[in-house]
Specification:
Rossmann fold; 12 helices; 13 strands; 17% strand; globular; binds 6-O-phosphono-beta-D-fructofuranose
Amino acid sequence: MRVGILTAGGDSPGLNAAIRGFGKAAIGAYGMEVIGFRDGFTGLAQGRVVDLPMAALSGILTVGGTILGTSRDKLHKMSIDAQVRDMTAQAVANVKANRLDAVVILGGAGTAKNAKLLMDAGVNVVMLPKTIDNDIVCTDTSFGFATAMGVATEAIDRLHSTAHSHHRVILAELMGHRVGWLTLGAGISGGADVILIPEIPYDVANVATTVHSRIERGSAFSVIAVAEGARDQQDSAEYAEAQALVRSAGSSAERRNAKAHLAAVESAQREHTFKLARELERATGLETRVSILGYVQRGGSPGATDRMLATRVGAAAAKLVSSGVFGVMTAVHGADVVPVPLSEVAGKTKTVPINHDWITTARMVGTGLGD
Ligand code: F6P
């Protein structure tokens, strides 16, 4: 069999480990030929390929990023020469031109929708879940998340010492897109005094109360982990209203306007961590600083947990392809890697349940959650 592989969406630690796991199993255990498409769906649409013989897979297990490159381009809405075009047919033609029996796609929540569109166009697809956000449904986790959580935890550790030395409040803004998994996980692991996530809109007064109670106990400093998608209760209500307008839009013109309004609200609320810093400094009298962790959470070599997980889902994908099981994602369910239908994954986001054990644990150890 001949199989194509591509990486789409934001990069994450473990992508190359997964490419290696898939390739070594596909070639070594199942005698397949493997080629890579460059830069996500763009390379598939343009037919930009690279051979991936066994030799190409050596030395990449520990390498961050993706040797294939990636992009956030969508097949059905690809901007080419300042025009937005549906390149699905071109992608299908390139699959045929390269005599491929299947395409393996490494991607996150957004990619699942594109993988399903490609499947609906008649291509045999297997998707490997990848993201530092842990926002993919139907899987306990995905490679990328554990490493990012480790990097963010170490950053929070480091922020504790400088906050303590200067008697400051330091707000660490973490990635995670529209969910709070990464911030909640790293916040608990890093001992953040307050953890603010999108799923629990916060009240600045409550955050200030936590800081004040620490001051009264002799700790005139605090470290607060803030998810990039977190909002105070007022902004959260405005954002929810803008989202509802998109959902209820009737005509395409209405939908376009509603989406533009939602984007404007998101943009206006993007600096929420700096806004919170100013409010907290006023409310607590402590100097307050912001540290945006940003892309260090995405870069660098994967940790052992993600190397293991990436290798497992990669090898599992090779077995699924060899068995002719397509239209699925290699999901992690407890100790097992199992195929779940892409139709159950596409277009959905896994948010943190309000009664999740991580939230209960945070409350039990006295972490403020802003509510
Ligand atoms: O999905 C991974 C992620 O890092 C999110 O946590 C973050 O919001 C987003 O990608 C950033 O996107 P970009 O890399 O396009 O700036």
